[in-house]
Amino acid sequence: MDKIDCIKAFICVVENGNFSKASTTLGITRDQVAKKICHLETSYKTPLFVRNTREMYLTPAGEKFYQHCKMILSEFEWATNELISEQKYLEGELRINAPHSFSQTFLTNIISDFMAKYPSIMINLNLSDKFSSIDEKNFDVLLTIDHNIDKNNSKVLSEHYCRFYAAPEYFEQYGIPQDLNELNMHSLLVYSQMNSNNKINLLKKNTPEYLYCSPKLTSNNGDVLLELCKNNQGIILIPDFLAIKEIELGNIILCLESYSSLPLYFLAKTPKKRSMGKKAELFLTFLEEHYSIFDEA
């Protein structure tokens, strides 16, 4: 039997003077009220009331218990109201870590819409391309680009691939490579987190291939690589989400279309060591409404 319900019944009996009036106030039968009082007395092995045919009054232990119960019930109701208010009128800080380049391209408008919908939530947005631990950094949500998926605490929001691009003027001057051997004759500008010991893992129509190269430049910033590419400094290998706008503007062109990197997943991660808060849950739902969820089946 629920202790809080029993305490409510006990307080109601004390304040109404008998079981009958308490049952009317609570909207339950007299027997149900009596069972709740009996449950308390049995649980604590102490009589709370002195009952006879003429009257009913509190025992000394019942009097003390009543005073404490009033405080307990008051605190419980305050906590309940605060919780309901927090769920209905969300406020406070939401701490997000996100990739710098991806955020500039896609995330700004989403966060703007989220802020408009939940004006009482304060966003603390940290932009970093480092793959840092969400628990160490104490964020509520960590948005990241990764080849790997942690199924325990990650939601996949979208899937991307790195491809080769260069400026039209560069291709006019140096020609368009037709295969990886020809690619090695060009100046390569590579995202640094993809280049390991001068070996880059690629796919050609879902078949693994490897590019062994000595890039002219490596950088952990996609915007820098794009600017150098637009200045005819070479062929870049960058994620497709960074290339979209520049392709639409005609500033860069895709080459070696049959080649791509291994899949890159845009992930939303939450802390492993603590439960996800309501603000984080709302933000993840908001993100999911803007991205196609990757079908792992």
TrEMBL record:
SUPFAM superfamilies: Periplasmic binding protein-like II (SSF53850), Winged helix' DNA-binding domain (SSF46785). Keywords: DNA-binding, Transcription, Transcription regulation. Residues 1-59 form the HTH lysR-type domain. It holds the Pfam family HTH_1. InterPro entries: LysR-type_TF_proteobact-type (IPR058163), LysR_HTH_N (IPR000847), LysR_subst-bd (IPR005119), WH-like_DNA-bd_sf (IPR036388), WH_DNA-bd_sf (IPR036390). The keyword Transcription regulation applies. One of its GO terms (molecular function) is DNA-binding transcription factor activity. Belongs to the LysR transcriptional regulatory family. PANTHER family: HTH-TYPE TRANSCRIPTIONAL ACTIVATOR TTDR-RELATED, HTH-TYPE TRANSCRIPTIONAL REGULATOR. This is HTH lysR-type domain-containing protein.
